[in-house]
Amino acid sequence: MDAAAPDAAGAPLELLILAGGLSHERDVSLRSGRRVAEALRALGMSVSVRDVDAGLLGYLESARPDVVWPILHGATGEDGSIRDLLELVGVPYVGTDSAGSRIAWSKPVSKTLMARAGAHTPEFASLPQSLFREVGAQAVLDIVLQQLALPLVVKPAKGGSALGVSVVTDAKELPRAMVTCFSYGENALLERVIVGTELAVSVVDVGDGPVALPAVEISTEGAYDYDARYNPGRTEYFAPARLTPEAARAAADLAVLAHRTLGLSHLSRTDMIVDADGVPWFLEVNVAPGMTETSLLPQAAQAGTQPLGDLYRSIVAAARVTQRD
Prior knowledge:
The chain is of the alpha+beta class. It contains 13 helices and 13 strands. The chain has helices at 26-41, 56-63, 75-78, 81-89, 98-105, 107-116, 129-135, 137-147, 174-182, 226-230, 245-261, 296-303, 308-324; strands spanning 14-18, 46-50, 67-70, 124-128, 152-156, 166-168, 187-192, 197-204, 211-212, 216-220, 235-238, 267-274, 280-286. The strands form three sheets. Strands 8, 9, 10, 11, 12 and 13 form a six-stranded antiparallel β-sheet that branches. A four-stranded antiparallel β-sheet has the order 4-7-5-6. Strand 8 and strand 9 (211-212) form a beta hairpin. The protein is globular. It starts with 13 loop residues before the first strand and ends with a helix. Mean pLDDT is 90; it is low at 1-10.
């Protein structure tokens, strides 16, 4: 069913986009919501955009939108909680359900499940801040350096947009990297650096099974941090990525494997590194990818054959049909 067409009663379909929230990624969410709304309104769809606030539940229960698209980044949008709420209210929504979102939101859990499914993922340790207090910070850092070795990536075990992420090449940098990480969450993920080409591979499922969009290659001077992600100029993107056909297929297969293994729906984005041998290494997956002008899923879609607005419309239609049936 075309998501812009009227329903059986002749009324136009109503899409509600949730954007904003109170996470560190609020501004990105607002920009993402506006971009999706603009693309769908250009196709004639009735779209409204709302923040997450004290009036949301009352609005959902009175307005009963046909579909909700939660484009919320950070904890509320990606840890399953907003999806739990939408399930309790009983409105169809775009994206992975609450159970799959909780799995994907935890990087240590998703990496463990992907490793069990046969994927390559960098060796890692997941350490809470409380452990440093109980065992002693220096003792913990010493064993990390002995077993994982440098260089290391230190990042919040739950989070996005590279907030709180550091690349450590010198042991003296590790304590500061831990402090930065813990300012964004209680648990840290420390993983070995894999040298290679950084990719984002988006997956879309509109009813016929998950399909990988063209891989986007990320090339940046210095770290691919928050500023490099959302402010044009610091990062160069290649869509499709400059890969051999074999490496491109392997990257696509890994993204589809993540989508299936972690129980994801409608859309996802898998971040990975392809090493010099063409082997893709799973880093993390995102169930609420950014949709700004510099975001990776829109770039992947534009490198494909389907116009961006049409793709979004197909996703909305799939969400309505899937959760209605």
